[in-house]
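PROTOCOL LOG
Step 1. Enter all chains and additional molecules of the complex.
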Amino acid sequence: MALQIINAGPNPADVSEQIRRAIAQALPAAAIEVRPGGPGHFEIEVTDAAFAGKPRVRQQQLVYGAIAHLMSGPNAPVHAVDRLDCRLP
Amino acid sequence: MNLDESVKQEISDLIGSHDVVLFMKGDRSQPQCGFSATVVGILDAILPEYRTVDVLSAPHIRDGIKAFSSWPTIPQLYVRGEFLGGCDIVQEMYGTGELFEALGVERVEAVRPRIDLTPAALRALTAAAAEHGGAGRELHLSVDAQFQSHLSIAPRSRADVEAISEGLVLLLDPISAARADGISIDVSDTPNGQAFRVDNPNAPKVRQMSVRELSQRLGAGERIELLDVRTPEERAIAAIPGAVLLNESEAARIESLPRDTKLVLHCHHGGRSQQAAEQFVALGFSQVWNVVGGIDAWSQEIDPDVPRY
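Step 2. Run joint prediction.
Step 3. Record the structure below.
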């Protein structure tokens, strides 16, 4: 019988895709790149015209707001976003 | 994420309760995480008064504020009802000066600290920078809230302050810069190789208090925590009125107090209490005294009714 690994974290590639989809839902025109880092850590790059004229904190709020459900609660798949770059196309 | 209406209202009320409201872990006198401590350090340096909300003591606010602000981390700074940002943004705005404008206070230039290097330290730091630096990575010095110094090699941040000593450039974040003025760095040989030795004149130290001064302060009703670090057996022989035995539960109580609480420690002659006092300074307490001569001096100079042993 194969040993079952209990408590293995979610597959980082799956979580990256969840992050990408959640951002795409909020910012449909955005180009989104998600790179997994350490366990639960991710780097995100979003390029969208919707960021135009907004200060950095407001741009980041748009992204963080979109992925809040992935970052809340004790079993959140995303523990930390190590880097969040919001760019204009 | 759905935010309960009552929680939303509570958060709105908190944000409206003061011009500057910081949602943080711990409180202003005792931050419970490094990021919160950094923001408190910056605000303390430029604002006489602001309000803090400890999210650790209110889990519904801790979760609620993240949804409210669309911001996943604590601390969060609100200024006149507007979300300003978290630790990184506040630090950056402090470095660029934008924070002063946002808070409506006059701009204070970050101090450029004076740093002394011994020739050996200069050689060692220059070698370290040459070996590990380059490609935009430079020597950094940071001084934490306990005044412990840390050297590292990292990319330059916009907020960094430059200190130039003997032609060597050291970068410091603005809070570290304020804590580092007058610092001296040397290198010494240890069994594990060379180690940097940093002497920081700004670091809080254990101060010395005579029994006469202690008696006056107690007589004046000053709020101090007078701690007896002797054994219960010694305490049964003689004790200074008002002193509390520093046992485990008492130590736990003291550790939960604000870091600017006045702590006065005594033992039999002043040796053990000096060591204990140094430990409280290491924990971040800024007002710590050792009673010179201990209870023996008290018996001789203040109260002969306290037996000597």
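Step 4. Note key features.
The mean pLDDT of chain B is 90.
The interface with chain A takes residues 1, 63, 66-67, 69-73, 83-85, 89 of chain B (CB under 8 Å).
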